[in-house]
Design brief:
The protein has six helices and nine strands, in the order βββαββαααβαβαββ. With about 210 residues, it is α/β, with parallel strands linked by helices. Helix 2 packs parallel to helix 4.
Length: about 210
């Protein structure tokens, strides 16, 4: 199976006052195409730092990350951050379409992606006139339209009720089934049940790899 991302002995440290904190501590693993992988662990365990390293938002102090961030376009890499990143001057559908404006290829029609996630009726509203949960689903839809090589999502069901969490989970599982690698930080057991592999992180270390 094709390897989309490979981490080799990756370490990242942060300064906290006079203290040096090792947020990611000699981590090595691979992410494969066509799979859905979860990253779990308590707050402060290093999950967000690890995601940031994988998407190229930061660089490791030690070790090597090989992955699609060498070509930072939406056909290779799509991100659903906790901050969602919707542009307030655009409508919901324009936000979902945004990667296509940047030249990414269309894999899923933006309107279909929004309908799939239950926000089709909100297409022409600005994000600020929708709920946080609806905005989160728009951020997921934006990631789906290009079927990227790697889709990274940070707690993508954190603002969803049970029915909409299932919509998000099913949509991410489907894009993995079509060949993308989906890497998601989550505490949602429903999503964990759909993942091929679960990585457990604690104190900066990936301590277990569990096949579901």
């Amino acid at each position: 199976m094709t390897i989309v991302v490979r981490l080799t002995d990756v370490t990242k440290r942060h300064r906290r006052g006079r203290e040096t904190v090792t947020a990611v501590d000699h981590v090595s693993f691979e992410l494969q195409a066509g799979s859905m992988i979860a990253l779990v662990g308590p707050s402060g365990s290093g999950k967000t730092t690890l995601l940031n390293l994988i998407v190229g938002g930061d660089v490791p102090d030690e070790g090597v990350i090989d992955g699609p961030t060498e070509r930072a376009d939406w056909s290779m890499l799509a991100i659903v951050p906790q901050t969602l990143g919707l542009l307030p001057e655009l409508t919901m559908v324009e936000n979902v379409e945004f990667p296509l404006r940047l030249g990414a290829r269309v894999a899923t029609d933006p309107g279909e992606a929004m309908e799939l996630l239950g926000i089709g009726a909100l297409a022409n509203r600005p994000p600020q006139e929708t709920s946080l949960g609806q905005q989160q689903r728009a951020a997921v839809a934006r990631a789906l339209v290009t079927a990227p090589a790697l889709l990274v999502a940070d707690e993508p069901t954190s603002h969803q009720d049970e029915a909409n969490a299932e919509r998000v989970t099913a949509a991410l599982a489907e894009v993995a089934a079509t060949g993308s690698c989906v890497f998601v930080a989550t505490h949602d057991n429903r999503m964990l049940d759909r993942c091929d592999v679960v990585l457990q992180m604690s104190d900066g270390v990936v301590t277990t790899v569990e096949a579901r």
